[in-house]
Amino acid sequence: MKYVIGLDIGTTSAKSVVFYENGRVAAEYEVAYSLSHPEVGYAEQDPLHIEQAALEAMNLSTQTLDREAILGVGISAAMHSMICMDKEGAPLSPSIIWADARSAKEASQMKEKHPDVYMRTGTPLHPMSPLSKLLWMKNNHYEPWKQADYFVSVKEFLLYRWFGEKVVDYSIAAATGLFHIHDHNWDEETLQLAGVSKNQLFTPVEPTYAMKGMDALTAEKAGLKRSTPFVIGGSDGPLANLGIGAIEPGETAITIGTSGAIRQFSNQPLLDEKQEVFSYSFTNDLWITGGPSNNGGLVLKWVQQLLLEEREIPMEELTEMAGRVEAGAGNLLFLPYLNGERAPFWKAEAKGSFIGLTPSHGKGQITRAAMEGVLFSILHIASALERLGNSHDKIFASGGFARSEVWVQMLADLFNKRIDIPVSHQSSAWGAAWVALYSLGKVEDLKSIKSSIPMNQHYEPNVENHKKYQSLFEVYQSVSNKLQPDFEKLHHM
């Protein structure tokens, strides 16, 4: 029996998922790490804690297995992290992650003065991007920025320390805002704006790039042989699409965990002057296009805390309560922008709000409206993708929300499409593992993963509910667009 590991370096934890070659999960282990907010708008993590969590997760996920039978490791990682690092691989700064908003001013100025950057890089001009972070560091004379030999993501940081290699996969590089997605190399014009040189960035490589000869002490901590090959993989977005089987035109992946996203693969970058979506390189002939939402499962967590009385209402009870309410929550809408919003507005200043509250609305309607609001935001991004030529013929869903029958049924009703759910919710890890199998010559191509994704169940849409949602979505789009200037005013107060 042979195994392959998908190592998924996420926002809140490192997950090591051990798969059989057919996609079934043999073992998995997750190790959490903390997120720090030293100032309002800051979001930082300790890179060394992330390294420790990744090594521990691999070690503990393989303890009961024959480690000699591990074919290799594929790596998935969250996008937009930025670490200032020296030549020895020591971090000079925290990992500043996608949720960090300190560079809002720099992002806004770039969008106004250099809109052409988006057309070259496919990365919306927003505080999430390492480009904005580097501009903030430059403008604020950030000490680690002045001392840094390299500027890297979390994945690059780990691989440099583990293998001594200075490489970055296309999709992590593309998410920096510094990468020319049409020729798959660093964009010289943007580098000049950011005040960094090519020598301070790592060499972009395809996701199949493999490394061997792990540092001996590191291999011991990971519980792996030094000769175990590590395949660089990609970012969590395209790998989630691959791991769920959304590969062909018209196949859409929707992932909702703490945040949310909708994505499709395309055979060319999909961009226009509206700058509503991202388009990132994955391989030399595949791009991933879509949009992220800042607000997914955390919205339901907020509702759970909001409704706290003598006891905490369990999530299952909360969603069951929402399921007893009619679609549309009594014409109550929720704009779910609790943490600002990325696609399609890219407004860090956006705020959450209920629209249409009356005395007849209770806990059930409030909960359902919040859950529907998260999905309306995904549908809003889907509309932008359709404008660029994408269709949503087949929809696959993954992430924590996929465990809720009520929430997934809402999604089917909103899109008026069947929703397919895989057995494993670890789609990014399986995508990374499959890229490793492909790189090592164990499978024919990337698309053949479709026959190795164990599916769990599917949900069919309710036509009457869909009609209701169509009417409400028109109002949702209208008010969400109209309120953006007012949200900015509130933010600056």
From TrEMBL:
**Which CDD domains does this UniProt record tie to the protein?**
ASKHA_NBD_FGGY_GntK (cd07770)
Enumerate the spans annotated as Carbohydrate kinase FGGY C-terminal domain.
253-439
Highest rank taxon of the organism = Bacteria
Q: Does the keyword Transferase apply?
A: yes
PROSITE patterns xrefs = FGGY_KINASES_1, FGGY_KINASES_2
Alphabetically sorted, this entry's keywords are: Kinase, Transferase
Q: Where is the Carbohydrate kinase FGGY N-terminal domain?
A: 3-243
- Name any Gene Ontology BP term: carbohydrate metabolic process
Q: Which PANTHER family match?
A: GLUCONOKINASE, SUGAR KINASE
Family statement: Belongs to the FGGY kinase family.
Specify the protein name: Gluconate kinase, FGGY family
Q: Which organism is it from?
A: Halobacillus dabanensis
Q: What is the lineage of its organism?
A: Bacteria, Bacillati, Bacillota, Bacilli, Bacillales
